Amino acid sequence: MANLRDIRRRIKSVKNTAQITRAMELVAAAKMKKAQDQAVAGRGYADELNKVLVNLKENVDENAHPLLEKREGQKTLTLVISTDKGLCGGLNANLLKEVNNAHTGETEYVTVGRKLRLNLMKSGKDLKADFVVKDPVPFAEARPISKFLTEQFLSGEYDCIKVAFNDFKSTMVQEPKVIQLLPIESSELGEKQDYEGVGKGAVTETDKAAALEKEYLFEPSPEKVLDTLLPQYVNFQVYQMLVESRASEHSARMVSMKAATDNANEMVADLTLEFNKLRQAAITAELLEITTAMKAME
Fold this sequence. Notes:
With 298 residues, this protein is α/β, with parallel strands linked by helices. The chain has helices at 2-41, 43-57, 91-102, 114-122, 142-154, 205-213, 222-297; strands at residues 76-81, 107-112, 127-131, 160-168, 174-182. The chain is 58% helix and 12% strand.
């Protein structure tokens, strides 16, 4: 009977765990919906901003603006966007693998999120700064990050600024990426990244042609407009990456918690079956003892 008590206690413990993981799954699902809504809300702005940049780059010398300037050096500053909490499957591990693959001896890091910040510190990487971002992501909190990255690039201390983040593809798929943020490459100015509009494809040649057919009147000049527009473009890029990373986090956590809940339920079913077998064996043994005793008394 002691064995039966142990199994009963274990069943109760696993059921309690299943309740916790189920609650975490529901919370993650609600947060994921908010993060996805944030990403969807930026689609229209991303579309128009890219179309304006396509037209604008045809009217100015791209090498004239510092944010478009390509440099010979290889010193890189990488913004790593990870999670503050765990229980989200292999999300951070997969991103860390991409970061390590892109790492060179001249790479330093800026972090958002506690998980990879601690990992990078333990591995001896050079950390330049760390930022904390609320959930859901406020647009205002992307500005200090993009401003810091832009200032580091314009100061000449770094030749390239990159961002490592998880691109939210779907509830089941989050793709770790390391992309170049600065200098803004001319080939990227008119292209739509996957994270600019969840579920939308890349800008086609037809879209680019349509954008170029529109006539924009730039005042006071295209160069002045570029001075204002490019920092906004960088700021929006950083914001969108933060939102995609947050949507990826909650999506991965929801899937992980659902898998944990399912495993717990399966374990409860297996333990219940084992408990019933042992109890039936105990009942059968008692019946045999009673029957044997009765026969002995005859």
